[in-house]
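Fold this complex.
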Amino acid sequence: MSASCATPAPGASLPGSLLYDAAALRAIEAAALAHAGEATALMQRAGQAGWRTLLSHWPQARRIVVVCGPGNNGGDGYVLATQALASGCDAVVVRLEPHAPRTEPSRAMCAAFEAASGRIEAFGGALPPADILVDALFGIGLSRAPDHATAALIDAINAAGVPVLALDTPSGLSGDRGSADGAAVRATRTLQFLAPQLGLQTGDGPDHAGALSLDVLGVDAHCFEAAQAQARRIDAQDLAHWLQPRPRNAHKGSHGRVLCIGGDHGTGGAVMLAAGAALRAGAGLVEVATQGVHIAPLLARWPEAMVRRTDNVSAFAGALDAADVIALGPGLGQGSWGHALFDETLDAASAADTPLVLDADALNLLAARPRGLPAGAVLTPHPGEAARLLETDTATVQHDRPDAVRALAARWNAVVVLKGAGTLVCAPGGLPWLIAAGNPGMATGGMGDVLTGVIAALRAQGLDAEHAAACGALLHAVAGDRAARTAGERGLLPGDLIDVLRACANPEPHP
Ligand SMILES: NC(=O)C1=CN([C@@H]2O[C@H](COP(=O)(O)OP(=O)(O)OC[C@H]3O[C@@H](n4cnc5c(N)ncnc54)[C@H](OP(=O)(O)O)[C@@H]3O)[C@@H](O)[C@H]2O)[C@@H](O)CC1
Ligand SMILES: Nc1ncnc2c1ncn2[C@@H]1O[C@H](COP(=O)(O)OP(=O)(O)O)[C@@H](O)[C@H]1O
Ligand SMILES: [K+]
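Structure:
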């Protein structure tokens, strides 16, 4: 295997930007306060930033209802409401009886709002008429699931049928984990303060946060040094970091040989999709080991592939030896054929240290019969497969996706791609990558097989396991977005992704 994609040298600058959790935001806040004074000053800036965001996205709004909670998130809301009054808008604060301000700065901001003749209404089951709602109920201080009365208020916000601007966090959602333990606001837009939160971009986060804005509240850059990042976010712009133009004198041997293994009776399409994706993502040679019955249709679709029948496991030993990367799992099944291929392939890859990409039933077989993996293996579980690999249930995985991906990487000593909205990629002990691309049109059978082929192809082209997985998950998601742009998300097929992979795999180099 020789390099045709770029693995960054150790210490080289990485693409993307950092994402944080509540503890990190508290550390940034503490550094900012130590440096530049009062909590009320930051709160003023937060509320003013909220007002500017509201004006720039909803300039016609006149009736503004701000739902304030008991902490400093509520304080931001009082500042915004005061600004709205000063601009001649009709601004009302709504709150639950027990949610009178409890912190010093939020009490001060509430008093300023009342001094400006601001009106505060107790929530009695219905919200006043509004052009826009501002959610200033809870931010990073959310400490438990909302109780019955709070859930009724959140439900009223979600049912109002007007845009919702959330301040810092959509109330009820964990900005750390990307899940909610009970009722949670579904915002049209969320204005984050100081630094972006990981939980707004994975799992249930995007559905609750809506569009994202950020205001750093004028805090000095050095204050961010105190904060520990939770993930590195990459989007379509970052593909060029890895997918650089090929050397002019490249030859097919420069781009590696991928062996795709899978396709038991009834699931031959899966390995066909993986092979097609590997070809379109730039592998030099793609070989497929599958059931004999699938060979003719596979060659009709992909004459560029080399194909071996695997009715007899020893028949493909030569292909195992020749492969630079082995993708095992698409359509493999868990019958005797799949079992035999799984054992044979893992033995051969372990003996020769061949890079592996394991997906689908290869992951289920691994979970059922745990064994060590050769160094640099990549696992691509969806949340259900991830649950089996962690001996837990899918809800537990989705409750804390960042924790799950870190635990999987540590448990299997492998690079793990935890698929789904806000896909996370993590190497053992590493900082997870957050893939900021992809769409729900991709929730269609066979999409994961395409991802397997893409990652195997990038690995074959010289990226190390972590970077092949991160870049591969990004390329796959960007292709999903590009394919969805032509005719929408519903009805998107894995083949549509393969059709646009080439266009996405050759990004314009950064100037
Ligand atoms: N970081 C910064 O630099 C800046 C931060 N700023 C703002 O401050 C926000 C953080 O403020 P915060 O710490 O006061 O927490 P916040 O989110 O208002 O909630 C805590 C209150 O809610 C309560 N409570 C919690 N869960 C509850 C539940 N389920 N049901 C009912 N009650 C519940 C909790 O009660 P307790 O748990 O103590 O009983 C407590 O009273 C941050 O998100 C940002 O908007 C900006 O002003 C400036 C810059
Ligand atoms: N809501 C979503 N948003 C973004 N990407 C998604 C979403 N749903 C699914 N995907 C992506 O589509 C692919 C589905 O893979 P998988 O669940 O393994 O499907 P299959 O097993 O049917 O091939 C994954 O790459 C996943 O990240
Ligand atoms: K909020």
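The CA atoms of residues 32 and 223 lie 6 Å apart.
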